Amino acid sequence: MEQVNRDRLEQLLKQFSAFGATPGNGVSRLALSQADIDARHQFHSHCEAIGLTMKVDDMGNMYAILPGKKDVPPIVMGSHLDSVLKGGRFDGTLGVLAGLEVVHTLVERKIELNHPVMVVNFTNEEGARFDPAMMSSGVLSGKFNKEEMLRSRDSEGVTFEEALKQSGFEGAECDRLTDAAAYLELHIEQGPVLDTYGEDIAVVEGVMGMVCYEITLNGESNHAGTTPISMRKDAMFASANVMMHLQRELKKMPENLVYTIGRMHVTPNIHTVIPNEVRFTLEARHADCAVIREVEKIIARLPSEVEQCVMSYRKLWDRDTVEFDTTVVNAVSDSAVALGYKTRRMYSGAGHDAQFIATYIPSAMIFVPSTKGYSHREDEYTAYEACAKGADVLLQTLVQLDKKLSNAYESEFVK
Ligand SMILES: [Zn+2]
């Protein structure tokens, strides 16, 4: 069974980790920064060197294309080259470079596929410089409005539009990814499951739905030294009670529900003053929307008064679970098994470009282990052999889908 060139993939990953390298062995490669622009040029020159043609669309998404034997929509592989501030060397980059290595393997071994093959680098996946995350795949899928995205500003006041124009990577709307036979995204897991269980590959079935609420406790401020405890309306202790209650209730839910109180605002936030207002977020994620609805019921059942403070809540936003395409998911699974790699199925708890692309192109993702589950930090690591196994699955899935989908076209033609 065909495998990718391990050394070449390792060299590629090492080469790209120099773009925006940080002293802590990570990368700071914010979207359309000089480091990102340098990485883009490097990607472009590698693509040209193996005979691919490059197209760039109006959001700066880059598409490297290898023609197929037939005039049919391409099979697309890719991810993103941008990173968060002090991020890791593998997040996103692996999916783009593994795609490149897979195509290099095809070209080198003269393996001709029916479908054209495309490697994509999506602009500003992280949203670390320009809000929101997954900006460009969001525009492609119609989830985000392009004009609004162009106005998004970084912390220095530079708009996305200005940065895109200055980068030299502003292409044409007619070159957008509109139609494809399939989209495959190889990515690091960014969680500890594969590493903990010593498994090679996760076949990703979809992206978990989530919900985010803000809960507010209103009490009364007063002097921290003179007000007897029995006469207080302390919003902080009241909110602590609510948090403990939430944890007790949520622990009764299915084990794979994840929930986080990640943000808290305390007013006035002074150590000599009893807090009169505490606001905090509760975010929960699960693949089954019925479980998410149960979380919402727990919140709805909260009392309106806690320790003489008024409790209120509002939903900030939610997102439905994205189910990946069964044919593509099964092709990933069959490929990983055929290669003899230890495999499990899972839903992604993190967001990825694939979740937007999946709304109009049959998609799936492949995860490889993140050592200790670390990601979005400088010591994010995935062993190079583990990366290569992911690329092998990518290659095998591509070849399998090419066969399977070509047969489908032919039988349609016969009809
Ligand atoms: Zn990523």
TrEMBL record:
Q: What is one Pfam family matched by this protein?
A: Peptidase_M20
Presence of keyword Hydrolase: yes
UniProt keywords (A-Z) are: Hydrolase
Enumerate the InterPro entries for this protein.
Amidase_Cbmase (IPR010158), Bact_exopeptidase_dim_dom (IPR036264), Peptidase_M20 (IPR002933)
Q: Which Gene Ontology MF annotations are present?
A: hydrolase activity
CDD domains annotated for this entry?
M20_bAS (cd03884)
**Residues in the signal sequence:** none
Q: Indicate the family of this protein.
A: Belongs to the peptidase M20 family.
What is this protein identified as? Zn-dependent hydrolase
Species of origin: Sporosarcina saromensis
